[in-house]
Amino acid sequence: NVTPASAHAPPRSSVLSPPSGFLAEACGYLCGNLEECRLIFGAMAAAPLATFDCTYLGNTPVDGRSKEAARAGTSALADNESNVRKVQLQVFAENLVVLGGLTKNLVVSSPMPSISYVGVTGENLVCYLSTDKTSGVTLCHVFRVKQDCAEIPLVVQQAFGAFAEARRRRKEEKQQQQQREQAAAPKLRLDGLGDSNVSRVDDATPEGGGGSSS
Fold it and tell me: Which long-range contacts (CB under 8 A, 24 or more apart) does 2-7 make?
């Protein structure tokens, strides 16, 4: 089932405690990817574009980031009946978040830049591929959905567009901020400085030697 964002408020108390800013800074300090952590926790504080109720079959490493790799990963997990769990797959503009269906605890969070494929790869089966920025390992995450399988890739595609637009706006805002700071910076004045006030390094003689003795 898919729940529109307007009808579903994000479970902030279970995901964002303590505040997301502190978690992002702490996570960034530990993993070394501060910007990526800020994207993840910042997105989790916003409302999802959509929420899908499904069963998470788990994830498995795959070779490549193509549709063929996605199908191979799905085949490896399609018959898995152990350690499966009911979850909510939430689609944000910045990332995909998987929450426990009952506890609403965080299971998986995948930033949009890490995702290379999302699609229907079997009967009532949807998967996405995400690549870890540090290790380079690509994982195939597989979900069983009772209905609306095709809706998930469509919503994720919309999220990609929103992510690209948000990144473009952030870049423009950063450039504008830099321009404002440069315009407000005090200008260095060199008026009135004569040659006598300027010493050249290559004219100086090092202490303790360098000159000729007579």
Answer: 2/50, 2/51, 2/52, 2/148, 2/151, 2/152, 2/155, 3/50, 3/51, 3/52, 3/53, 4/50, 5/47, 5/48, 5/49, 5/50, 5/51
b or e along 78-116 (b: 16 or more beta carbons within 10 Å of the residue's beta carbon)?
beeeeeeeebbbbbbbbbbbbbbbeebebbbbbbbbbbe
pTM for this entry:
0.60
C-alpha span between 134 and 138 (Å, rounded): 11
Contact between residue 60 and residue 73 where contact means Cβ atoms under 8 Å apart: yes
User: In whole angstroms, how far apart are CA 84 and each of 13, 89, 99, 104, 107?
Assistant: 25, 14, 13, 15, 12
CA 118 to each of CA 74, 79, 146, 169: distance values in angstroms, whole numbers, following the listed order: 12, 20, 17, 25
CB 90 within 8 A of CB 51: yes
Q: CA geometry: angle at 71 spanning 67 and 72, to 5°? A: 115
pLDDT tens string 37-93: 555 555 555 678 889 999 999 999 999 999 999 999 999 999 887 889 999 999 988
- The 10s digit of each residue's pLDDT in 86-130 is 999 999 888 899 999 888 899 999 998 899 999 999 889 999 999
